[in-house]
Write a structure and sequence with these properties.
By secondary structure, the chain is of the alpha+beta class. Helices cover 20% and strands 34% of the residues. Among the domains are: 139 residues, Gyrase A, domain 2 (2-Layer Sandwich); 80 residues, Elongation Factor Tu (Ef-tu), domain 3, CATH 2.40.30. Helix 2 crosses helix 7. The longest helix has 12 residues.
């Protein structure tokens, strides 16, 4: 099991630790509900250094990215980022990712899921027939997500870059907490605002940055946040989690990711997805809230009024913000409209739920 540069920090803070994507990661500190509320109301710090980062460089870098991703990366200029996915040849998704434009047409950073680092690297390589320079910098890159409505206000004194006015899905590079060459990005996985910071752990820079953030946030009540609250926060926003809501068998169109599936350019298996769009979807990923008491969990069956299986739950939890059980799942397209009545099979009992618009909060 791998450690991040912050693993000992988590242990010293009394975090409940567990294996995730091959890493020893903090699941919770003070409790999921408490941590969830801290991010929604103020600010929290996530160690997400387990994520993967690839650098693609050279005159054919953009062409390669255009070929393997569903979104249109030609729209990116220096300092902009874009959510996208790698479609596969079977109509599913290899992984979802963020593309960062470091230098237009020349240099890009792809940020991928921790569990898919090797898979994604191999996938990209098989399409790299024009010798694009590729570097896997995952093991030497630290990533902290400081999320919440007060996050940028707390962090602003630590950098000379104007991060309080950083637009969504843009980034800047500069000195942060005395550490040079830190990439500060207005991205995140919580819907609560804030930034993510990428840097290399040289000369104990990881400890220096971690300590500076918590010192700056002492008055603002900043807290360390585990992966448990990260999951409840992203689910309230209706954000997909790879391996749950999207995978090698789910189409980006079925997953509601048509907005990152651009047919203005050819990409891997784009003809298949164009046909799927033209022919109409047979299933769709929807959000639902429980009407009857019960929590829907991953892989529970979703049924109609007559008890026929119409789909499966992909994610579910008790929403800390709403105080009610919510979830996501794929259902027959005919029952995907907002307000549709569905039933979740929980311990052989059908409990009523209804399809609702996402995000939940």
């Amino acid at each position: 099991m791998k450690n991040t540069p912050f693993t000992q920090k988590h242990i010293d803070l009394g975090a409940k630790m567990a294996e995730f994507a091959g890493y020893n990661m903090p699941i919770s500190y003070s409790g999921i509900n408490d941590e969830h509320a801290a991010v929604r109301n103020s600010a929290g710090v996530f160690d997400v250094s387990h994520m993967g980062e690839f650098i693609l460089k050279g005159e054919n870098a953009l062409d390669l990215i255009q070929r393997i991703t569903s979104n249109d990366a030609s729209k990116l200029t220096d300092g902009k980022a874009q959510y996208s996915c790698f479609p596969n040849m079977d109509g599913g998704i290899v992984d979802d990712l963020i593309v960062y434009c470091l230098e237009e047409n020349k240099a890009y950073m792809l940020v991928v899921n921790a569990s898919n680092i090797e898979k994604d690297w191999n996938w990209i390589q098989q399409f790299n027939d024009k010798q694009v320079e590729m570097h896997n910098i995952s093991d030497k890159t630290c990533l902290l997500a400081i999320q919440g409505p007060n996050a940028t206000k707390i962090l602003q004194p630590l950098t000379d870059k104007d991060i309080m006015n950083l637009k969504y899905y843009t980034f800047t590079k500069g000195t942060f907490a005395g550490v040079e060459n830190v990439l500060i990005s207005a991205t995140g996985y919580t819907g609560a605002g804030g930034v993510e910071i990428y840097f290399e752990n040289k000369d104990e820079d990881a400890a220096k940055i971690w300590d500076a953030i918590f010192e700056a946030g002492q008055k603002g009540g900043i807290k360390p946040i585990g992966l448990g609250a990260r999951d409840t926060l992203r689910l309230e926003m209706g954000y997909c989690l790879y391996g749950n809501d999207i995978d090698d068998t789910t189409s980006p169109l079925e997953a509601g990711l048509g907005w990152i599936t651009k047919f203005s350019k050819p990409f891997t298996n784009s003809e298949h997805f164009e046909k799927q769009k033209a022919g109409g979807l047979t299933k769709k990923l929807v959000g639902f809230e429980m009407i009857e008491k019960g929590i829907a969990r991953h892989d529970y069956e979703i049924k109609d009024f007559e008890g026929h299986i119409i789909g499966r739950v992909t994610s579910g939890t008790q929403s800390p913000t709403l105080g009610k059980a919510i979830g996501m799942g794929y259902v027959d397209a005919r029952l995907s409209a907002i307000g549709s009545e569905i039933f979740i099979s929980i311990r052989n009992t059908l409990l009523k739920a209804k399809v609702v618009k996402m995000p939940f909060v």
